[in-house]
Amino acid sequence: MISIGDYAFNGCRNLTSINIEKFGLLEALGASPFSTGCRIESIFLSWHLNRVADETFHDFNVANLYVDKYEPQHGSLTQLPKSTPFISPMIPVKI
User: Fold this and answer.
1) Is residue 94 within 8 Å of residue 64, measured between CB atoms?
2) How confident is the model at residue 38 (pLDDT cuts 50, 70, 90)?
3) Three-state DSSP class for 21?
4) Whole-number pLDDT of residue 89
5) Residues facing residue 4 across a β-bridge
6) Which of 44, 46, 48, 90 is the Cys-Cys partner for 19 at CB 3.0 to 4.6 Å?
């Protein structure tokens, strides 16, 4: 997946967390992909994300937004067992 388009998850009321870092090649977020009715508590943005539309976070209410400031080491995310807690050099962002 290279991009998430405009209004992709618009109105998804059961969506509570998004980890874009898992989509290592995600480059772009369209306009308002998480707006209107989403109950997202946390979102993790990938180090590889380089295009964000002007209205990406329009009408978007989130408690925790994290931006990865470091490129992950090769294979560091895919080799973790499912029971291992996820630890990443993320920085919290106030919006």
Assistant:
1) no
2) confident
3) helix
4) 46
5) 29
6) 44
